[in-house]
Design goal:
This protein is an alpha/beta fold. It folds into two domains: about 200 residues, NAD(P)-binding Rossmann-like Domain (Rossmann fold); about 80 residues, UDP-galactose 4-epimerase, domain 1 (Alpha-Beta Complex), CATH 3.90.25. It has eleven helices and twelve strands. It has a seven-stranded parallel sheet, with helices on both faces. Strands 7-9-11 form a three-stranded mixed sheet. Strands 8-12 form a two-stranded parallel sheet. α5 links the parallel β5 and β6. α1 packs across α7 and α4 runs parallel beside α5. The longest helix has 22 residues. The two termini are about 35 Å apart. The relative contact order is 0.14. The protein binds nicotinamide-adenine-dinucleotide. The site of nicotinamide-adenine-dinucleotide has 30 residues, from α1, β2, α4, β5 and β7.
């Protein structure tokens, strides 16, 4: 079994790869993994083992067709994480998002088709739905993306659907809510706040702090992806959530507490343009069809995440020195 993972040096991709290499997915204990990652500011080679007998690391671009045509033959599956992923950056540099998320995805799928890759999972996001005031999105909800990031992910999904429908590529799509956990770049809300607080610095909170996100531990997300890879149906979309909705101010208060800090470190900043108020996913389909259930309680997962950042300053300090993002 050979799996190619795009974006495997990023936050979620690297968790998926480390779990695969640790034998964490039943039936895949011997799987050989090729990571294809261009190592943008968000990718970190140190998030993966330096040397592992079942890992090949290739630094390259999903937009490079000839590289893909060389790499893909012999692979049994592709799990596609690679993306520009930070909403704030998409407000300033939308072209990068279209290039990687839309054109890069099309290029990857074209190469999968030409080389006969038997199975593809495309990782998308709940942000393609837009914002919801009440209730939760099911998979057949209309896509109403509000930011260039979300629009590029929605466009990528449409390309993916077309490669399934037109060409019969064996492909499924996942739409997950906000992830948290170790190895997340310190530009994103939770690691930004934790690392600021660990350094005794203030945390920037958008608007009135009442935006609601549904938080899921990265390990639960990756287990869901593995279920979709092995048992998901072609042409289908699977929502992945966790039911754990929190306002940004609630998250901030928990983090202040876990970092032994107080509310005097909160700095209110002007709201993000086009800031979605609430995300909420209905994940009945993946629970009923594939038997998925998240298993990391938020309190424990968050405490362990804070402890990980406390214990790994070398991992995040280099990235943070070049960042002043607000998550
Ligand atoms: P990330 O930004 O941490 O990692 C992205 C990785 O992709 C990086 O390692 C980067 O170097 C690589 N990459 C970027 N452009 C590339 C290119 N052209 N060719 C090859 N590699 C390239 O992102 P993440 O948070 O791990 O997200 C992974 C996927 O999951 C993304 O598709 C994202 O849209 C989706 N997602 C993320 C979340 C979340 O909360 N983080 C939630 C739902 C869905």
């Amino acid at each position: 079994m050979r799996i190619l993972v795009t974006g495997g040096a990023g936050f979620i991709g690297s968790h998926y790869v480390r779990t695969l290499l640790d034998g964490g997915y039943e039936g895949y204990e011997d799987a050989h993994v090729t990571v294809l990652d261009i190592l943008t500011y968000a990718g970190n080679r140190d998030s993966l083992p330096a040397d592992h007998p079942r890992l090949d690391f290739v630094r390259g671009d999903i937009g490079d067709l000839s590289l893909l045509m060389e790499l893909l033959p012999g692979h049994d599956a592709v799990v596609h994480f690679a993306a520009e992923s930070h909403v704030d950056r998409s407000l300033e540099a939308a072209a990068d998002f279209v290039r990687t998320n839309v054109l890069g995805t099309q290029n990857l799928l074209e190469a999968c088709l030409r080389t006969g890759v038997p199975r593809v999972v495309h990782i998308s996001t709940d942000e393609v739905y837009g914002s919801i005031t009440e209730g939760s999105w099911t998979e057949d909800w209309p896509l109403l993306p509000n930011t260039p990031y979300a629009a590029s992910k929605a466009a990528a999904e449409m390309i993916a659907r077309a490669y399934w429908r037109t060409h019969g590529l064996n492909l499924s799509v996942t739409r997950c809510s906000n992830n948290y956990g170790p190895y997340q770049h310190p530009e994103k809300l939770i690691p930004l706040f934790v690392t600021n607080l660990l350094e005794g610095r203030p945390v920037p909170l958008y608007g009135d702090g009442r935006n609601v996100r549904e938080w899921l531990h990265v390990d639960d997300h990756c287990r869901a992806i593995q279920l979709v890879l092995t048992r998901g149906r072609a042409g289908e979309v699977y929502n992945i959530g966790g039911g754990n909705e929190q306002t940004n101010i609630e998250i901030t208060e928990r983090l202040l507490d876990l970092c032994d800090a107080d509310a005097s470190l909160i700095r209110w900043v002007a709201d993000r343009k086009g800031h979605d108020l609430r995300y909420s996913i209905d994940e009945t389909k993946i629970r009923q069809e594939l038997g998925y259930a998240p298993r990391t309680p938020f309190d424990r997962g968050l405490a362990e995440t804070v402890a990980w950042y406390r214990d790994h300053p070398d991992w995040w300090k280099a990235a943070k020195d070049t960042e002043d993002g607000t998550g």
